[in-house]
Amino acid sequence: MSFLDRLRSLPFIDLVFFFSTSFLVWNLHRYVEPVPKDLFYPSFLLQFAFGFFPQLYQRKWGRVWTSLSAITMVRLPYLSGLPMVGSYQLVGLFLGSIFGIWVRETLLVLLGRNETALPKQSEQIITDWMIRNPTGKSNLQIWYSTYFGFLFFLFCLVILCFLQFQGMGVFTSLGIQEFLYYPNLSSREAMGLSCKILIPIILVVLYFFSEERSMPTPSKDSLSEQIRFGLFLGFGLNILVMCIQSLWSLEFFSLGTHLSVSAGRSTGLFQDSGSASWILPVIGFLWTTKLTHIWRKSKERFSLFLLIFSMIVITLLGLKQGKAFWVIWGVFLSLGFIQLTTDLWIVSARNKILTRIGLYAVLPAFGCLILYGISLVSKEWYLVDLAKRVMLFIKAFPNNPGIAFQHLDLVRYELIKIANLGIKENPWMGSGIGSFPLYLLSPSHLNSNSNIPFVDFPPTFYHWILYELGILGTCIFLYYIGIFLWERGLWKQSILLLIPFLFGVQIQNSDGAFVCFYLLFLGEKGTGFSPSFDKYRKTIWFSPLLLILAIGFSLNYTLFDSQKFLEDGIGSEFRKQKLKDYQIAYSIPPKSPNYEYEFHGRVWEWKMSETATLRNGRIFLETSSKSTLVEITFLNADRNRIKSEVFTDTKNGYNWSGEAPKGASYVQIRSRYKLEFRLPRSQFDGYGRLQF
């Protein structure tokens, strides 16, 4: 086959989709995390290398290294002595993996891997590389994939973020400007709270989509097993670090874990103790389940010894974990013990089912008795603290349920109370993605007597999703999850929507998002598809129907939810009703001794002061940067153009002097290239309006 024919056989639609989507996520991340290049790129390039080069070398080891790095590299910049700089999103790792996948697939096609004949023995390196990487190709059109609908919904949520935090400026030729969202919080920083959730989800889903899209055949290439192997390697590395932290010092490899060390919790290489408290027992349960299966199949004593040793180590490490660890680990151990013992000692299927039902029924009472005994221990362990809190909860619940829940956890009780109030105010559409931590930073909450010492998400996944997406948004989100579970025949995985999703918003960090979506999308069966789903997919109407529903649900949610942003205003009027003044759109506030606003960008708009009908004056943009054209435009109340003039280039900036035309209400300044300039605070009145 000629090179031109190979070029024609490239999956151009896939390449355009994945590279364009990755490019958009990259730009979104750099916008909400404008970290200086000398701080950002060292950790980014190292993450990128751990994703790109293993994927380029071999499909299997690319998956292993990506999953291993996803739960070990989340605090890389802190561990190297640099600031956090948004590393919790692992943008470099996932972009490197996605880029490596499609560079590998492109090279395989261009080098002729699809052809029958392989290269000559003299080109042994290329031959071995091609044998290791059979070319993947999917016959299903990309927009018919279940991943496409989920990504489209996430894209709609990003659009809603722009409407909520940037106003309508991006759609009215004003570009993306950085407004003042709260007195001490810019719109860029406010949008970053939403992207703390959106970027990890998009990157993880896009990565899994790339892996499945490039697979040769699901039956010959176990994506699930290879990713699980990488998770086990990362799990072992985290266990080692946590052992050192527990036996030697909590300060070991703990930079960037916020309040975890001060609370006396070991974190390993996870994002913080919140991530460790649920990822440790979940992956630990997968590991012990794997060892149990090997032991029952082979009867090797080493497997049994390793199983018992692993359970003891994980339990001991849990002494320095949060309450979520003991709930999840206790439930997993109890259910696993019941399942294993009944399988080993009861032969009759009927007796086995009845015995399990009886044991499940008495399990809560047995757990309470164990907690009562633990509550009598005098050690300062989190398990003992949890047991004492549960005892107080049981005593207080019959008389006062509210006080009882406060005994369990006062901070989480306050967070749930705030979430419940927000759900009641906006039950159907929610308050917007990222709005919960934003509310905790709002002046109204900061001025209240709150028991919440830090900014966080609600303590349960469902409080978060109902608060931010509402009932309709939650139904759409769970609809996509349900389609994934049906497609793969993983109905048993739906229990994971309760554990660990019941404990916090695990998808807010990349390590948690990766583990959550691996458990839901892949599970034990990898990418095998259920017979019922395959039967419908072969019809001519099923795939288009799923596409129509995916796009229709997302667009309707976006359409209805965007109505509440129309009253926020455009340009300088954005959030005027809530801030009580007009947006000045500065990047840096005025400081002593000059008290000047600093502006960055290409387009700005200000409301004009209404002190006189005709206004004469001067505007001087103090700057050292240069642009070939800087133009001032006057608009009337309907935003129709009245007059435009050009600034005069001077030694220290750009100058304009003249008279504002009659009927002018707004002033816009446009620069051909990005400009940084300063204006004195005296240029604006007390309401944020421009005055001459």
UniProtKB/TrEMBL annotation:
Q: What is this protein called?
A: Uncharacterized protein
TM spans, by residue? 12-28, 40-57, 88-111, 142-165, 190-209, 229-248, 268-289, 301-319, 325-347, 359-378, 461-483, 495-520, 540-560
- On whether Transmembrane is a keyword of this UniProt record, the answer is yes
Q: Which domain of life is it from?
A: Bacteria
Q: Which UniProt keywords apply?
A: Membrane, Transmembrane, Transmembrane helix
Specify whether Secreted is a keyword of the entry: no
